[in-house]
């Protein structure tokens, strides 16, 4: 944004004249006293002043100013869109974290029920009330429930990490602006 402000100022400078100053002093050191190195030409100085002012440039200056202003408006619009995009991503992460948190809680309950079911099947097998395949099925169900629980915990951790990154990135961008 600061650069676009400077570009507008630069474009507006076309309305004003350019003035240049130049000064020079010289001394010729030589033992030869005739020709160009005589006493009148040994020491000298010059001063120059120049000015350029475009009286008519075919509205080029006003076009440059309008172009610089349009570029600034474009950047402002992009900045607003960027901020809204980040806000949308943060909202989406909050919703994802909420959903994943509920899923983690439910899968933790499922692990508890599956573990209890497996223990019941093991005791029933010891008392010869169920077959071996029922115990194995109970163990498989418990393993799947644990896998689901661990996946949901991972998804929750990744959601929290993504949210932290988005918020940190936005704060960093805000603090680097003048």
TrEMBL record:
UniProt keyword annotation of Transmembrane present: yes
Subcellular location field: Cell outer membrane
Gene Ontology molecular function, alphabetical: efflux transmembrane transporter activity; porin activity
Keywords from the named record: Cell outer membrane, Membrane, Transmembrane, Transmembrane beta strand, Transport
GO cellular component, one term: cell outer membrane
Major place of residence: membrane
Family: Belongs to the outer membrane factor (OMF) (TC 1.B.17) family.
Name of this chain's protein: Transporter
């Amino acid at each position: 944004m600061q650069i676009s402000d400077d570009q507008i100022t630069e474009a507006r400078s076309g309305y004003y004249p350019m003035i240049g100053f130049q000064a020079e002093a010289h001394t010729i050191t030589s033992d030869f006293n005739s020709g160009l190195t005589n006493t009148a030409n040994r020491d000298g100085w010059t001063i120059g002043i120049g000015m350029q002012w475009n009286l008519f440039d075919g509205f080029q200056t006003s076009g440059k100013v309008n172009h610089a202003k349009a570029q600034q408006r474009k950047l402002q619009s992009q900045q607003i869109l960027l901020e809204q995009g980040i806000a949308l991503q943060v909202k989406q992460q909050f919703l994802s974290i909420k959903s994943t948190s509920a899923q983690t809680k439910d899968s933790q309950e499922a692990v508890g029920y599956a573990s209890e079911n497996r223990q019941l099947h093991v005791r029933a097998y010891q008392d010869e009330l169920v077959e071996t395949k029922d115990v194995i099925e109970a163990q498989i169900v418990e393993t799947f429930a644990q896998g689901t629980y661990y996946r949901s915990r991972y998804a929750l951790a990744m959601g929290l990490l993504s949210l932290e990154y988005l918020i940190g990135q936005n704060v960093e961008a805000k603090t680097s602006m003048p």
